[in-house]
Amino acid sequence: MPGWTWPGTTETLRAVALRAAKPLALVLVCVPFAWLAVDVALDRLGANPVEAVLHRTGDWALRLLLCTLAVTPLRRLTGWQWPARLRRILGLAAFAYAAAHAATWLLLDRGLVWEEVVADVLKRPYVTLGFSALVLLVPLALTSTRAMMRRLGRNWQRLHRLVYPAAVLAVLHFVWLAKAGRLEPLVYGTALAVLLLARVPTRLRRGATAAGA
Q1: What is the rounded distance in angstroms from the CA atom of residue 170 to the CA atom of residue 94?
Q2: Side-chain half-sphere of 206: how many Cα atoms within 13 Å?
Q3: CA-CA distance, 62 to 58, in Å (whole number)?
Q4: Cα 32 from chain centroid?
């Protein structure tokens, strides 16, 4: 009969999709790095390869960080639960690209000359912002396991609110570096503002509930 489905088919497909979501997300977050590795191997990074690596790793760190922040608003808006299953992968991937971005700067751009590194962090505001964002992401990456969630309890959620200032610092780092006339700073800044403002009603409701209690 038209429109008839085998009993349980919808539930089975949903279960399969949920099981496939994490592996698929893991593959997708690795694609930019694989693409970058191919471009490095084939010498397709242009006249300044170090700058190209810096830009691409930094761009993907910021994009994935914003995707991580988008999980909760998307879940609340749609009622879907599956995005929450991807938050850890997205967050760890954002940290991995941010770490690769920092490592490229330290090793290839500054040559591990620590006097220059410290001078850059102290004297160049955009470096200070980027370094500060990375520092805030480190404890989030280290406590991303279920074991740490159980060990920290409610403090785990408080600690992971550091993602908000980290995202603000990362966007400001990008804005400071971007050339005049580029559209990306406006896009990233607007996206971050929307994602942060989307959390305000929930915070207000929780505050009102706590006050009423």
Answers
A1: 11
A2: 5
A3: 6
A4: 14
> What are the extents of the domains in the chain?
10-212
State the residue for tokens 């979501």.
21
| Residue 29 tokens, joined | 């977050």
- Radius of gyration in angstroms for the set of CA atoms belonging to the chain, rounded to a whole number: 20
- What is the DSSP secondary structure assignment for residue 178, as one 8-state letter? S
List pLDDT tens digits, range 25-67: 999 999 999 999 999 999 999 999 999 999 999 999 999 999 9
Separation in Å, CA 114 to CA 34, 101, 111, 124, 134: 30, 17, 8, 15, 18
Q: What is the C-alpha separation between 177 and 128, in angstroms, rounded?
A: 12
**Amino acid letter, 28:** L
Within a 10 A sphere around the Cβ of 174, how many other Cβ atoms?
23
The model carries a pTM of 0.88
Q: Which residue in this structure is represented by tokens 């593959």? A: 27
3-state secondary structure 106-128: HHHHCCCCHHHHHHHHHHCHHHH
Q: Is the CB of residue 77 less than 8 Å from the CB of residue 189?
A: no
What is the phi/psi pair of residue 47, to 5°? -75, -25
